Amino acid sequence: MALLGRLLPLALALALGPAATPAGPARSPYQLVLQHSRLRGRQHGPNVCAVQKLIGTNKKYFTNCKQWYQRKICGKSTVISYECCPGYEKVPGEKGCPAALPLSNLYETLGVVGATTTQLYTDRTEKLRPEMEGPGSFTIFAPSNEAWSSLPAEVLDSLVSNVNIELLNALRYHMVDRRVLTDELKHGMALTSMYQNSNIQIHHYPNGIVTVNCARLLKADHHATNGVVHLIDKVISTVTNNIQQIIEIEDTFETLRAAVAASGLNTLLEGDGQYTLLAPTNEAFEKIPAETLNRILGDPEALRDLLNNHILKSAMCAEAIVAGLSLETLEGTTLEVGCSGDMLTINGKPIISNKDVLATNGVIHFIDELLIPDSAKTLFELAADSDVSTAIDLFRQAGLGSHLSGNERLTLLAPMNSVFKDGTPPINARTKNLLLNHMIKDQLASKYLYHGQTLDTLGGKKLRVFVYRNSLCIENSCIAAHDKRGRYGTLFTMDRVLTPPMGTVMDVLKGDNRFSMLVAAIQSAGLTETLNREGVYTVFAPTNEAFQALPRGELNKLMGNAKELANILKYHVGDEILVSGGIGALVRLKSLQGDKLEVSSKNNVVTVNKEPVAEVDIMATNGVVHAISSVLQPPANRPQERGDELADSALEIFKQASAFSRATQTSVKLAPVYQRLLERMKH
Fold this sequence. Notes:
- This protein is α+β, with helices and mostly antiparallel strands.
- The protein folds into 5 domains: 29-99, no CATH class; 102-232, FAS1 domain (Roll), CATH 2.30.180; 243-373, FAS1 domain, CATH 2.30.180; 377-494, FAS1 domain; 505-636, FAS1 domain.
- Helices cover 34% and strands 24% of the residues.
- It is built from 27 helices and 35 strands.
- It has a 7-stranded mixed β-sheet with strand order 8-7-13-12-11-10-9.
- A hairpin with a 2-residue loop joins β3 and β4 (76-84).
- The longest helix has 26 residues, at 639-664.
- The protein is elongated and about 115 Å long.
- The model is unreliable at 1-23 and 639-645 (pLDDT under 50).
- GO terms for molecular function: cell adhesion molecule binding.
- It is found in: Secreted, Extracellular space, Extracellular matrix.
- Residues 1-23 form the signal peptide.
- Binds to type I, II, and IV collagens.
- Residues 103-236, 240-371, 375-498, 502-632 form the FAS1 domain.
């Protein structure tokens, strides 16, 4: 048994493979993807890897789980093929790839992995082939045959016309004077090449793709007697300039150059680090209205936010993007970087005109459209990308546009377009005042709002904040979308037009002829002072028709009994403010009478105790009024419900007594009242 206990963990480790062995090193993303490809190919024999090939191209990718099921790379369809995993070869008559590739020197291994053009050019130089065939330990990032053929003719001619200087130097730049396997290729590291000790930039991405100076590693870790060969998809060249230096020498960055200098970001862009600059061309700046561009260029804070929104926190080569990625900028915003075929996209737009311009401290992609962050926008500009255009037109027509384009610290409560589906109000003094009460005198963030907070408006009103489980409301209007925080103003998209309170609950009821009978009842019951004083009330207010629907005798009896009348009226008043946007599926609201009201909302219809509410959210300084078309009866006034409750209690006691009797094998005698109830229930 003791021997079995020692052998079992070893057997499990062998069965699960090296990745499952606890003491083993963590596998790199590339190795994990290769392992998945091997797993998908195992049905075809040992050491067979599944690869995804883009239809109509020679591009192949080892597949990860997500790509396997989607069958797409950069939105383009792929086909699955099966081939020998790196380091293995087929044997005639046997399944899969059972044989390891023969171990040869670097020069011969180039031919084995299919890098025959690199092998040919190595042979043309006088010095490099003997070095590759001799003793030592080297790594070569060998360009594929397609990589050499895709070089511009003038570049290739300059190399092959001077093989012992230009070609030799180019090949030496692809080499490192030690063995480097993929598990050592860390994201952001630099390897020292054999050409003048120039650096080679390595990036190892979470999706398993490894790039070398932004060239993709196609097949890795081909061992040789004197080193290792990695096959890459481009011929790489030395990198000498940092991002700032590239900006300074590119004619198409004239405006960007001036903007970077004005913002002081040149220190960052010429320093150490690994960044991605989505560099706007002169054309990108020209697309922006002159007024907007001049405003941003003249505002150091807005300008810095604008430029930081174009800088990703890490170097991202185009070859590493095979699907959509959310990447964070130095501004703190998130950009959706994706691809469509050979084109890179930013937030779904194919605006990258030149990609993978490598710098010593990152990579540059040229873009033809400016990415203006919310933090550099006016309220007008924020609204242009939101569902509030109708409300913004109203503010403009009312002569309030200067508040939305200036440097005034404001929060705009803008009703969404659907609120105005039945039309917009006429522009007059009343409408203008209402709109002024949709502007808060401070730049707020919804995450800092709290229940009971009061907000001052430009119209002179104080608005209350109500925090509910699933909604955040200001008076009767609830926030319907995430904040948009601009340079000076913040935009809250609201689900309805806000109506500021216009007096106490009693003032509201007295000012509406529908509630004249309710007002008289409140006065008769002595509740006027309660509903006039400070407080937080939700009043379900029966209309005159609700009272008139009661039997005349019952109504007269109720109005003649002040105590009973007060009891019923208190049942219509909740002890907190509940606006319709805060109701959700079901809320049990405690009334001043003591019992709870069941308030629910479904398909935009609010009900209380299953009775529909005729009108919601008539705001008062000490509460909210909801008009209802019936008089609610407290549970104590419902005989049937009282009987049902007693019957339920009797039945429950009977069940417990029966269970006790069976368990103890004794008889249990019920109290007479419950015996009588059970007898009545039988009939």
